[in-house]
Amino acid sequence: MRVFISTTTFAECNKETLRLLRKKNIDYVLNPYKRKLTEIEINNILSESSYVGLIAGIEPLTKQVLENAKSLRVISRVGVGLDNIDLHIAKQLNIQVYNTPSALVDCVPELTIGLILCCLRRITSVDRNMRKKVWGKEMGLQFRDKILGIIGFGKMGKKVARLAKAFGAKIVFNDIRTIKSRIAEYVSLNELFKISDIISIHYSSKERLITKKEILRMKKGVILINTARGFAIDEDSLYGGLKSGKIGYAALDVYNNEPYSGKLVNLDNIILTPHIGSYAKEARIRMEAKAVENLIKGLAKTC
């Protein structure tokens, strides 16, 4: 059996996953490009070789790609999101799809809190000034008593709430489900936009969440954080909000298109990171191990 591994840094932190594949007599091929694959590239790879399994990253696994992958039986996603996979077609083709949601419950919320603190205290801004030999102090804000609005109150959102509570923040949230919480108060999405000092996105929908209309409803100087889905925020509207000062500061780890090289890089009041939510060594090892475990389980059912 042969499988293709598309993630760019697979097994760099720990080779045990590759040893396990060999032990199970599973041949593997690593991503030769060492970057996110395009639709054409992953289509060519899966259609030209008899891969029965794919350990997947965030490359587009569209209807065409899946239909051309004649031998494919299992997709094991290294990560949480499945929005890059046409799940309807995968089901029609009897391709099993797995992901690794529990592996990121700590590292993405930790990154989120780190970005919030950097925005509040202007850490990246003063660091840039120091490197330019400018001794310039910027007045920041405390996290204590700020209203943190969390959109999407699943595992990630709840963990962010618990961490933020330790700083003395007040937590409100919105979710499409009815959820009870002892540390956070449910509010409507409109109310969340209206009252939050900081807004953090943790939902998994493919729908656009924040456009110019939503930004106009927010507090002046609001801090906006997105470590969930790039499509959630209209980046042109975000750019306008940051330029006008309606949005005081923002931090993004995900983008409409990746790798990102748009006009937001020209603004000083935004922190941009290259989709590093899962890039904590411990989490990466757990996530890759679970992905291999899922792959082996899926192949045992189908091959």
UniProtKB/TrEMBL annotation:
Which intervals hold domain D-isomer specific 2-hydroxyacid dehydrogenase catalytic? 14-300
- Keywords, A to Z? Oxidoreductase
First-tier enzyme category under EC: oxidoreductase
Enzyme Commission number(s) of this protein: 1.1.1.95
UniProt GO MF annotations: glyoxylate reductase (NADPH) activity; hydroxypyruvate reductase [NAD(P)H] activity; NAD binding; phosphoglycerate dehydrogenase activity
CDD domains linked to this entry = PGDH_like_2
Q: Which protein are we looking at?
A: D-3-phosphoglycerate dehydrogenase (PGDH)
Name the gene: serA_1
